[in-house]
Amino acid sequence: xxxxxxxxxxxxxxxxxxxxxxxxxxxxxxxxxxxxxxxxxxxxxxxxxxxxxxxxxxxxxxxxxxxxxxxxxxxxxxxxxxxxxxxxxxxxxxxxxxxxxxxxxxxxxxxxxxxxxxxxxxxxxxxxxxxxxxxxxxxxxxxxxxxxxxxxxxxxxxxxxxxxxxxxxxxxxxxxxxxxxxxxxxxxxxxxxxxxxxxxxxxxxxxxxxxxxxxxxxxxxxxxxxxxxxxxxxxxxxxxxxxxxxxxxxxxx
Length: 253
Description:
Blueprint: H1 2-19, E1 23-25, H2 28-37, E2 45-47, H3 55-58, E3 71-76, H4 87-98, E4 107-112, H5 116-124, E5 132-134, H6 140-148, E6 152-158, H7 169-175, E7 182-187, H8 194-202, E8 205-209, H9 215-228, H10 242-252
Helix pairs in contact: 4-9
């Protein structure tokens, strides 16, 4: 029974908060959820995001054989039965192909995970299923190697009135690549997601929100710049490294 499960979750939350010395959340949406659920909360709620370990990338020596003459869009992970989707990028690529600005054989979707058939269904709506390559299940080291060698890393998430504050751990893993841009596709009906804020403020790539109609043209221009070689990555993501995050926890303790 979902209602009983929700009530049990709320009871657990109240007990945890009651006995906690400090309350730390990984996203503002989660923090807001706690203060909305417990409006008379007397304890301050701290915000410290998740992060990444730079050594995961610097010590990775696995090589992957990507065709460097193509734009390699990389996505590793689940698609949650379409909850995560590539529709906005599919729309943009189809337009660029129809306008003669991009060739269909000039890019590849490289996927690692268990939802390849779902990805094919999504890409098929834009006649792009033939651009996908299935890498299947891979180790974490192999996943990082794919990301290091990608042209752009796809982050698929959502931001809805009923469910905000979703910041996938994959975002921070992608940020550790530093020189590879992130393309975040955020579905849902609420603008200014935390994912978009973090990507925009760090310069880590391009965030396109379904709830913001203007974003699709921004995404189109960004993608075209990748194909034309005009995009230069200039990100500042070190604030999300474990070294700095651990210092924040030390200060709180």
